[in-house]
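Review form for a predicted model. The reviewer records the input and the model, then writes brief findings.
Reviewer: anonymous (R2)
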Amino acid sequence: MAAAFPTPCPVPDVDRALLGYINSRQETLRIRAALSKYLLSAANGPNSGNIKSYQHLDHQCPNQDTAKRNPPSHLNHTRIDYHHALEDLARARTRHKELQAALEDLWTSHLAEASAQTHAEYDVDVTRSYVSLLQQRRRCLELQVIQESVEKLMNAYPADSHKDPRTLVKQAIGEQPDLPVERLELLSGPEGDQTWVFKLKKEVLDARAKMDRANTARIVAQQEKEGSPSLSHQVYALGHARDDMVAWVEEELSKLNEESEFLEDASPVKRPANHIVPDIHSSEDHIRQGYEGYTASRSRLLDVHEASSRIGTASSSLLPEPLADPPSAAQALLGTQSSKFIVDIICQLPQLTQMSNSERSILQQAVYLKALLSSADEELTEALSRLSEESRLLPSGSKNLLEWGAIACEAEKAVRGFANEERRQGHQEASSVAAMLDLCSLQSEVLAFAK
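Model under review:
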């Protein structure tokens, strides 16, 4: 069967080793023709008549169609296992197709059932999303309450309170500007003599005009004093003088600096920075003393006014008809009494001024105390509203002090009872532990004695 090449291999060992595996040209062509016919018959189909003549090739290289037939008995073990594997593969593919068809049937039925349950699932999803939205809204409200509380704490206790006042002022208004190298007069340029002369002339003219106005006012006052003013004119003048003095005092008080001790203690608008608790009893005593002084001054003023009215009535009864002649003895007496009345009223002017100042101070203190009470009421109401939102003891929005007091008492009793119970249990556990320790010590002593 085997034949050597016409040209032998230069390596004798290789030629001898491959001699059993190399065929002649005619044998190789015959094998190729047989394989071609077999492949052509396999391509034509299983009904071809040449299948039987090449059945040994089916057993040598089996395919899926040949695996369905029973293998011959003369095949070795490996080829029989290969045929069995092909049969198992064919059965597995058949089973896979059946299972895939059943799965498609189940999927079709599931889609039909799911289309009927779509609305129910949509309702469940909507309900779930609404519940989550409510939870998020409640959480948002809680976070807003916490944020407001933090802002109030930051406003009440600012973070920069521990800083030095110089640092705070520097942060507020910045650094101090540097002084100029030269004086401002030198920077503005030298002024000539004509400018100074013009300023001097202007000041002289202003002084002369003021002196002329003062002389004119003095002449008018002297002319008014030459006539004998009546009592009503004097009272009217004194009233105007009192009003002018009160207006002047109020103007001077308004000019006071806000940092003064008076405005710091009695200002109804500006609160003290250190939150000092005012002494209510001393304020009441001060207000009572001021009011008593006011009533005493008012009674004295009424007495003086009644005396002046009686004097005017007596003078009118004595002199029923006015005379154009020079003043007589009765008019001189009336002028003397009116001058005494004026002197008495002038003596009362300091008390009237003090009374006006006391009345202003009392009014400011009353307004300040009212502002303190209103702010305390607002803080209490705000604290109750925040407590009602955070606590679960009472319904939300409850601001009744009696209800909160009763609930606080009940909560205190419950906490006290719980604490007493825990303390009693702790004592019991401690006593039991002490007893166990005593027992262990006795056992250790007995064991030590037994040894």
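Findings: DSSP finds 14 helices and no strands in the chain.
Further findings: The radius of gyration is 62 Å.
Recommendation: see findings above.
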